[in-house]
Design goal:
With 406 residues, the chain is an alpha/beta fold. It folds into 3 domains: 217 residues, 3-Layer(aba) Sandwich (Rossmann fold); 77 residues, Tyrosyl-Transfer RNA Synthetase; 70 residues, RNA-binding S4 domain (Structural Genomics Hypothetical 15.5 Kd Protein In mrcA-pckA Intergenic Region, Chain A). It is built from 18 helices and 11 strands. A 6-stranded mixed sheet has the order 1-6-5-2-3-4, sandwiched between helices. β10 and β11 form a beta hairpin. The termini are far apart. The mean pLDDT is 88.
Length: 406
């Protein structure tokens, strides 16, 4: 049997780092952790995209720390709940996914999460579950019983629901089912604690309500800080918006995307997304306060994150490639190659392949002198065709593509 580590210093860091709120309170959870009791702790993720991102990694890193203390960890894939769609933090009804879409999305989830969580640990094995195991078996009678523990007032008090009501946007009854089902996951898994972002607070507390109703005991909830721009409050990582740094990305992609994140979020990114100690992060914070160039600090962050998921050598190679591309102006070796006919317009190829958002955006970039044939031949005509020779196109400072005629 795994022995639980009760080191007060390690427990204190877990309960403070990247943590927003602890329910019912930090003191009672700390007391149980110090007692040596093994807790069953879970985090759920809906497969609404083919990747997890470093925002999710905040929670996996916390789970990793609890696992290292000897607690029982469960990773739950919400394959059933994804078919309804989580209304949390949404101002419109989520798209409901089909079973086929979900199966496609979860193909590499375990591999991605396994870059943080040790699924190979035989002494303290980590469970990898799917909530269709129990939710698909609930009867309508079961659903009525679940619903009886919540009021309509509780459901519609959510800010995003209130906003939709005021704006006369539709609010569907099936959206009320989501917190009931996520709440029931806690009962089915017989957990002591759930971890998730602050946007999941309502759903996780629904589980706390149902644990009390069905099992007459407490369930702890840890809400974790979301990666947001500290000024605009926009999410830095969002699967539904297609933004963020995916755990499945190649080292160079990961490095480059981290470098594109706002300077204002640097310290939070170190705290939430790396294994560096708080002492090391405090030193980095002092460097920034003493006038260090944020770009240099961000290079450290990008290399640290690339190293976590791809190793030291790959991280160093990614750093070198970034320096060569953006520091020395070299054309990157891994630039995307697009095949086209010689009569195709460059504007059509770039828009169709989503390199550029729109034709008007491309025309604006051409007019601004931001599009060129590498290394520095400016493009003047936005309707220019590919031509017969391979072309290396540079768009702005960070986008590079190779156009290869058929």
């Amino acid at each position: 049997m795994t022995k639980v580590i009760t080191d007060p210093q390690k427990i204190e860091e877990i309960l403070n780092r990247s943590v927003a709120t602890i329910y019912p309170n930090k003191e009672s959870l700390k007391e149980i952790l110090l007692s040596g009791k093994i807790l069953r702790i879970y985090m759920g993720i809906d497969p609404t995209a083919t990747y997890a991102h470093i925002g999710h990694a905040t929670n996996y890193i916390i789970l990793k720390r609890f696992h290292e203390l000897g607690h029982k960890i469960i990773i739950l894939i919400g394959d059933f709940t994804a078919m309804i769609g989580d209304p949390s933090d949404k101002n419109a009804t989520r798209k409901r996914l089909t079973k086929e879409e979900i199966l496609e999305n979860i193909k590499t989830f375990k591999e991605q999460i396994g870059k943080i969580i040790d699924f190979e640990d035989k002494k303290n094995p980590i469970e990898f579950r799917f909530n269709s195991e129990w939710l698909s078996k609930l009867t309508f009678e079961d659903a009525v019983e679940l619903a009886s523990h919540f009021t309509v007032q509780q459901m519609i008090e959510r800010d995003n629901f209130q906003k939709r009501i005021k704006e006369n946007k539709p609010l569907y009854v099936h959206e009320f089912f989501y917190p009931l089902m996520q709440g029931y996951d806690s009962v089915a898994l017989n957990v002591d604690m759930e971890i998730g972002g602050t946007d999941q607070t309502f759903n996780m507390l629904a589980g706390r309500t149902l644990i009390k109703a069905y099992q007459n005991r407490e369930k702890f909830v840890i809400t974790t800080t979301l990666l947001e721009h500290p000024i605009t409050k926009e999410k830095l990582m969002s699967k539904s918006l297609g933004t963020g740094v995916g755990l499945d990305e190649l080292p160079n992609q990961m490095f480059g995307k981290v470098m594109a994140l706002p300077d204002e979020a640097l310290i939070q990114l170190f705290v939430d997304c790396t294994y560096l100690s708080m002492k090391e992060i405090d030193e980095i914070k002092k460097e920034l306060e003493n006038g260090e160039n944020p770009k240099n600090i961000k290079m450290k962050l990008a290399k640290e994150i690339a190293k976590m998921y791809h190793g030291e050598k790959a991280a160093q190679d990614a750093e070198d490639a970034f320096e060569n591309t953006f520091g020395k102006g070299e054309f990157p070796n891994d630039a995307q190659t697009l095949k086209a006919s010689k009569e195709d317009k460059i504007i059509d190829i770039l828009v169709n392949n989503k390199i550029i958002e729109s034709k008007s955006e491309f025309r604006r970039l051409v007019e601004a002198g931001a599009v060129s044939d590498y290394p520095d031949k400016k493009m003047n005509d936005p309707n220019e065709v590919v031509g017969e020779k391979e072309r290396k196109i540079k768009i702005g400072k960070k986008t590079f593509v190779i156009l290869k005629p058929n």
